[in-house]
Amino acid sequence: METPRHFIDLHxxxxxxxxxxxxxxxxxxAARRQGGRPKLLEGRxxxxxxxxxxxxxxxxxxxxxLELGGNVLSFSSGELQLGRGETVADTARxxxxxxxxxxxxxHAHRTLEELAGAAAIPVINGLTNGCHPxxxxxxxxxxxxxxxxxxxxxxxxxxxxxxMANTFIAAAGQFGLTLRLACPPQxxxxxxxxxxxxxxxxxxxxxxxxxxxxxxxxxxxxxxxxSMGDRDTETRYELLAPYQVNAALMAQAxxxxxxxxxLPAHRGEEVTAEVIDGPQSAVWDEAENRLHVQKxxxxxxxHAL
Length: 305
Ligand code: CP
Ligand code: NVA
What we know:
The chain is an alpha/beta fold. It is about 40% helix and about 15% strand. Helix 7 links the parallel strand 6 and strand 7.
């Protein structure tokens, strides 16, 4: 049996495929603006399983699949037999007999790998504690729409070295962008991912100093200080307070720097209202582009690209 085309993390997918997904996403977006909604996945069904809350991922995948002519089934993990101890692998084997692809949002990245390992159909990462590849694809699409090719541009990550930060490091390796991360040492991103991206020729630097990271950057990116499943809330607020993205920090970035955030945001914490609601903010386009990029991801996974 041929291995299904899983979309688990950016660093395990061919960079040419990732580029192609971005191109197709841009084409689908342009077509949709003209009223075009090609039914390329007619009769195909996507099952979505959520261990954690979601607004964008859930709605954009559902609309993507419906607009492509397919169907969607959406569950919280607790309402499946998974919630009563049926194994992830058995769930994968059973769903593989009913549907054409599975999207999972879960805590442990290992759970997603277990699902993919036992599934006969493609499995898509809807966010794990390790990474959030669909989001970063939408972010790159957004950046490129506004500023041209991401390759060679400088992205500054400021704040928690979390799942989003780790996926940006993978993107640096795959898309040739320069990435400067500013994180408290206690919340540093994966050294293994940094090593991987550097071995691919990417320039990835890690500092504790947010001003150094954003100096002259083309994009400034941050994320919530408390990700889903994080418990050490008070310590995090203390450690991350110096990493707030505010007008003073944005002033250190390039003149045309974009502000980016995957959302949901917490105004007054990781970003001020002035910045996220200001003219440099690209956050609503990032959210919209989830729809277009995930259509292209679904098409690639289901051999319809
Ligand atoms: N950015 C993102 O994945 O949002 P949701 O948690 O709402 O899906
Ligand atoms: N880092 C955040 C991203 C939410 C989309 C989290 O994992 O909760």
